[in-house]
Amino acid sequence: MLDFKRVELADKERAEEHLRLSDFRGCEYTFGNMLLWGAHFNTMIAFEDNLCFEKTGSGGDTMFVYPFGRATTEAAVTHILDYTEKNGLPCVICANENVTESICDKFTDVTVRLYRNFCDYVYLADDLENLVGKKYHAKRNHLNRFYENDWSFEPMSSVNIPECIAMNELWRAENVTDDSEDAHSKTVELDVVKRSLELFNELGYIGGVLRVNGEVQAFTFGERSAKDTFVVHVEKALRKYQGAYAAINREFVKSLGKKYMYIDREEDTGSENLRKAKMSYKPIFLEKKYLITF
Fold it and tell me: How far apart are CA 7 and CA 157, in angstroms?
């Protein structure tokens, strides 16, 4: 029987061992996201039978992320079916395309739908670094404007994290008003960003900081998911300098040194503005996610 618990920092080493075995690409398969968004999504985990199980929500809104580790599809799903039956919960599993196909091959009484708002945007690292071709013409124009400034890029570290926390508050002042429709979601996100920065070293994150005239104007950070994929959790820039977002994006990918083939810039959560921004960088594919209901 699965015994779920809150995600804690102490779970990092054990969870990441299971994550490496599965080598899934999606942003939900990163320990940082599980830990730091845990309170907002009511995320809980359980370790059983060489797998790590993850569930979110509660009651009739409970959803399971397909478990990661080493086990057969039948074993992984059967554990969840047993748990939901004993606890009177719906059995809804979120899985990538390959896993969804495997589940449908082995379990017949299921319905499947694309979870579009939570599909990840995945890009070739070389595309984001070099921005070659007509499709990136507008991005290069923004970059050229930014590069006219006295700018510098540096890795994120304990030295500059306090400045990034301060910049996060400046971003809040620029972008969050009490009467805006997304005030609550932005406030939650900014609090998660602050906590991420505070735990940056403990989580093993990698990040970058962009300065103009010595002042922090943008920062970004994330962690690997699959061995060929780096997930960018956060990217923030102030409004003062045109092209700051394009510059932090490009300079950070360059700093990764071709270690990863793909850059996963996560999902758009249904926001039309965010979808437009992510599409503007021309993803090589979407990491599709499906909801499988038993």
Answer: 25
